């Protein structure tokens, strides 16, 4: 599954370091598309262009404060991901909570970085997240799996499974989807891959693959979906410098 991805990643590695301004414009493009799409998946109504102006510090009329905060918060969360990557830090539960604090800052401060104390359900999904009293244990199991088993996996598979398992636990009241996509890209970026964008137009296939992984523990469809997005991002980088 990963042979083509590995070849393209090797091609990209031979071209590093990338030209400074090319790298800057690619980062800005991905930051905008990632922020727009991840929020749109969750129901934010800002368009791509509106998201761009909010990132530039301009308020968009007729849109809620929450929609504006989701954009600003996500930008700050990406900066935190980049900082972890730069420092080469190992992923911890504390970092996951910090990421979530940034995602939900000013939106629901009572629940930022705090595991939920209520049962939740995922609209349209067959899978029901665990009861609140099971979250701490399941998150500990996730981190144990990450520290040992996950390290033997290809970075794309590791990132996809971290995303899927985390969002299946649904440890927070709100913001789980955004946090899970940040975790996916954290893993990819640590391994030298460009960030990927789960596009809002692929939302149905994305949700179906996630639900299948939760109900059957068969992650193949979801890993394949992520692998396609990884290839798209690699193609974008390679086309910019070839």
Polypeptide structure, described:
The chain is mostly helical. It has one domain (15-241): Fido-like domain (Fic-like fold), CATH 1.10.3290.10. It is 66% helix and 0% strand. It is built from 10 helices and no strands. Helix 2 crosses helix 4 and helix 7 (155-169) crosses helix 10. The model has no long low-confidence stretch (mean pLDDT 96).
Any chance you could write out the topology, listing elements then pairs?
Elements: H1 3-14, H2 20-41, H3 48-55, H4 65-87, H5 93-104, H6 132-147, H7 155-169, H8 176-190, H9 203-216, H10 220-241
Helix pairs in contact: 1-10, 2-3, 2-4, 4-5, 4-8, 5-8, 6-7, 7-8, 7-10, 9-10
């Amino acid at each position: 599954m990963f042979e083509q991805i590995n070849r393209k990643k090797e091609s990209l590695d031979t071209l590093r370091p990338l030209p400074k301004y090319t790298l800057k414009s690619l980062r800005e493009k991905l930051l905008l598309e990632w922020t727009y799409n991840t929020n749109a998946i969750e129901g934010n109504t800002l368009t791509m262009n509106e998201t761009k102006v909010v990132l530039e510090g301009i308020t968009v009329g007729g849109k809620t404060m929450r929609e504006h905060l989701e954009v600003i918060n996500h930008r700050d969360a990406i900066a935190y991901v980049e900082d972890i990557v730069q420092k080469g830090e190992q992923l911890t539960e504390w970092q996951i909570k910090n990421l979530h604090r940034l995602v939900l800052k000013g939106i629901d401060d009572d629940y930022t970085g705090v595991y939920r104390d209520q049962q939740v359900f995922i609209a349209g999904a067959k899978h029901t997240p665990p009861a609140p009293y099971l979250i701490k244990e399941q998150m500990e199991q996730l981190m144990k799996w990450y520290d040992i088993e996950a390290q033997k996996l290809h970075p794309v598979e590791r990132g996809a499974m971290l995303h899927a398992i985390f969002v299946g636990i649904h440890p927070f009241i709100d913001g789980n989807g955004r946090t899970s996509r940040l975790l996916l890209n954290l893993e990819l970026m640590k391994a030298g891959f460009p960030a990927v964008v789960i596009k809002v137009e692929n939302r149905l296939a994305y949700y179906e693959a996630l639900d299948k992984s939760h109900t059957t523990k068969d992650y193949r469809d979801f890993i394949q979906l992520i692998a396609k997005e990884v290839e798209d991002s690699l193609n974008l980088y390679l086309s910019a410098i070839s």
